[in-house]
Amino acid sequence: FRAFDGAFAGVPHLVCYAMKANSNLAVLNLFARMGSGFDIVSGGELARVLAAGGDSRKVVFSGVGKTEADMQAGLDAGILCFNVESAAELQTLNAVAGRSGKVAPVSFRVNPDVDPKTHPYISTGLKESKFGVAFADAQGLYRRAAALPNIAVRGIDCHIGSQITDLSVYVEAAAKMFALVDRIEADGIGLEHVDLGGGLGIRYRDEETIDPYEFALAIKRAAGTRPQRLLFEPGRFLVGSAGVLLTRVVNLKSGDGRDFAIVDAAMNDLLRPALYDAWHPVDAVRPREGPARTWQVVGPVCESGDFLAHDRTLTLADGDLLAIGAAGAYGFVMSSNYNSRPRAPEVIVDGAAMHLVRPRETVADLFARESLLP
Q1: Which are the catalytic amino acids?
Q2: 110-123: per-residue pLDDT in tens?
Q3: pLDDT of 6-50, one tens digit each?
Q4: What gap in Å lies between CA 115 and CA 226, rounded to an integer?
Q5: Under 8 Å between Cβ of 94 and 149
Q6: Looking at domain 2-240, which of 3.40.50.300, 3.40.50.2020, 3.40.50.970, 3.20.20.10 is its CATH number?
């Protein structure tokens, strides 16, 4: 966070951590202590920010499906801005704010139709995406918003995708967005901030990642002398490399042409490999001597897609502890209780100190809120 934030020193800006990546209260509290803002996509995430000590005045509310209850919660909390993603949402927000006697601060999330060159499931800036408003429609929507009684136009927003490793796509998106800013302001609609989203990638395997200082230099060049404050929404980039999933080998199984290391973690704990065919590093916590073999690291869930890693060369024995790296983002937040499996605990390590920030779920926890029929 400090590296990213420091790269924009001397330029008015705000880093809003995209908490969807990792929403543990202790993690959020650490960011709040450092002065971070927050990018949220639900009323539940807003409640987490407030419970963690975050400043609601530094919250931007994204998401294509905000409910009226979500909007009311954001208005009551006094958030910085709603990132509006459709004309229908704009009308609903105006009505909700009107009933409350409030004025809703807004920006539009504009879809710049830039290919982020990442996995299609996390590409969000192409014209066929469900996210944002069409680039060609943006000016008209800003004129409409400026005329509404309970809407205050504050800025403009875009977010083109996640796990992006090519700086040129940010340069392309920024150029389009700043040109649009100029056209909107030529209509007499002032903008206080330009939110360029997040999406900077991390190294899972051998990716070439974007240096935050090079990123900042490119964005500052694109912004030129424009006065708007810059907002950013990094998530994975801030937490992804900091997390490790620990799992133990339950048993080793030789198949017809494949050898399986069956571990006690599964797709319900770390979904990314099954969902995106994502690659995570896997290392033995205590490496052992002996001949290595090629293993399929799989879990006990009743799905053929339940794997954590394919074709890893390791020397293993029953009971070995494995560390699955780069699991700090989109790990626990995407976990589930599928197959009635309790979710893992979360521990923060700070030097020699360890802090249990979420205890391991018990089997009793799984059905504590359920009831039998009369």
Answers
A1: 302
A2: 998 887 665 555 45
A3: 999 999 999 999 999 999 999 999 999 999 999 999 999 999 999
A4: 25
A5: yes
A6: 3.20.20.10
